[in-house]
Amino acid sequence: MLLALDIGNTNIVAAIYHGDHLVTQWRMATDRRKTKDEYRILVIQALENSGLKKDAIEHVAISSVVPPLNPMLLSMFQEYWGIRPLIVRPGTKTGLNIKLDDSRSVGPDRIVNAVAAYHHYGGPVIIVDLGTATTFCAVNRHGDYLGGVICPGLGISTEALVAQTAKLPRIEICQPQRALGQTTEESMQSGVYFGYVGMVDGLISRFKGELGEEGQQAQVVITGGFGELIGKGCRQVDHIHPSLTLDGLRLLYERNRGER
User: What's this model's pTM, rounded to 2 decimal places?
Assistant: First the structure.
């Protein structure tokens, strides 16, 4: 079985795959202060909660935007499982053509998402990932990765609003019934939710325009922690795919397996 780890700035999303079947998945907080023993215990506990044993893990694939964790996790899997993980980095075979001036600067999470989206939906495809940061990427019909947009994430934008104002409270991020809020909390929820829905739809429209004739045929897929919440309110989103990044890790492991 393959353990796929998507290491983000806020959460680590993990999944177990048996072939192309997603067996189970879980989340844990990203914490640079934790030791490899603490992470090992968390992984084993999550496996046991899913009815799996420690030695169920035979392969590991990692996408990480938190580089300080990478050496520790490599050491953990090598020491306790005898596995050398695949870490997505420049040089990893993706099957895409990265059409950027500096292809090494693209975050591994964006590449992994693009690989999965192109595999599942073909091209042209536009990918939106609503995590700690909100990212947009585009891949054309030929499998060329064309770049995209990086915006502040929904969660950190809301926290910044609360932190930089004297009287605004923390709120639950949810879908309001209407845009016209009757209380401060409702007004904030409306601004956060409908503001991000509008941003997503607006940027997708711009992407489609810049892609020209091809853009009118582009499929749009959304993922990430807030993907389902925002995606169901967007007119431009065709597919909500919560496991997109994890699926991409599985695909990349298979494509690079011969070199492991």
Answer: 0.93
